[in-house]
Amino acid sequence: MNAKGRALTNAALLLAAIALGALVWNRPQHRPPRARPPLAALAPHRITDITITRPGHPMIRLQRAGTGWLLERPFKARADRFRVEALTDIGTARPSDRFPAPQTSLAGFGLAPPMAVVSFGHQPIAIGRRRPFGDLRYVRVGNTIALVPAEIIHPRRLTSDSFVSTRLLGSRVHPVAFTLPRFRVVRHHGVWGLDPNPPGLSHDRINAFVDKWRYARALAVTRYHGARPIGQVVIRYEQGSLKKAAATRTLVIDIIATHPELLLVRRDQGLEYHFPEQVGDQLLHMGRHAGAS
User: Fold this and answer.
1) Which residues 6+ apart lie within 8 Å of 273 measured at CB?
2) How far apart are CA 256 and CA 273, in angstroms?
3) Same structural domain for residues 120 and 191?
4) Domain range spanning residue 181?
5) Cβ(71)–Cβ(164) under 8 Å?
6) How far apart are CA 197 and CA 195, in angstroms?
7) What pTM, to 2 d.p., does this model score?
């Protein structure tokens, strides 16, 4: 074969390879899958107001406050930011299927009435029942019904108590003194001290005690039911930024029970904070000699 023949053969082989590659690429199983659009056009960082309604239950309203959230209805309290922001998973979920809502009854989807309606600003999302097979739930947005992963939302868990922050003291509360039934812990020139001060008690132990209070998180938070206190903890604190001078304020926390759990009440919030008995021992006792008189 002369040079011209070889060149024509190589050109033919090249064209065949290109054609074969194009054929393989265009086969359905080799096309890049299209990303399914989210359930609703929501920008989570722009959501500032969330309302939740459930048949037979009071409306829940949550509002953004700076970097956190507040529960505004049915009562006022600090809200758990992570619990609230998890709600946006509903709007950003990518449904496995969606179809026009039928004009007839929606009862078969658990949407007449819905089990709950979560509204992000002016965008309501109606929550229906779980599908009989597969771990999916029906939801309605506008005139469309979609199937989203069921674990994203559990309607019966949408209670006001579930959104309350379990942290006893807010992040902007900076204690300067604790007065407990049998001893006081006071910060003086930036150093924490104990009164009375037993021998052998280290500053690390005192600092750890203060941190237990600053970052204390309850297992559960419920509405205050009016039980009589058996003691009190008085906290003097500064509120706001540590970089700015702030007036000292007072917070009184009632001790309702220490066994079988520690039950503390913040009457300013009308809330009961439930702690394990072991955590209660850490919050109410500095050490073996701290309560000696």
Assistant:
1) 166, 168, 216, 218, 221, 263, 264, 265, 266
2) 10
3) no
4) 173-284
5) yes
6) 5
7) 0.76
* Residue where a domain stops, chosen among 163, 196, 225: 163
Residue 222 near residue 266 (C-beta atoms within 8 A)? no
Q: Is the pLDDT reported for residue 124 higher than 80?
A: yes
Write out the two tokens for 253: 């926390």
Is 6 inside any structural domain? no
Structure tokens at 218: 């309850």
What are 207-225's pLDDT values in tens digits? 999 999 999 999 999 999 9
**Confidence at 137, pLDDT banded by 50, 70, 90:** very high
Whether 152 and 90 have beta carbons less than 8 Å apart is answered as: yes
Q: What share of the chain is helix, strand, coil (3-state, %, to 5)?
A: 25, 35, 40
- 143 and 232 in a single domain? The answer is no
CATH code for the domain in which residue 243 is found: 2.60.40
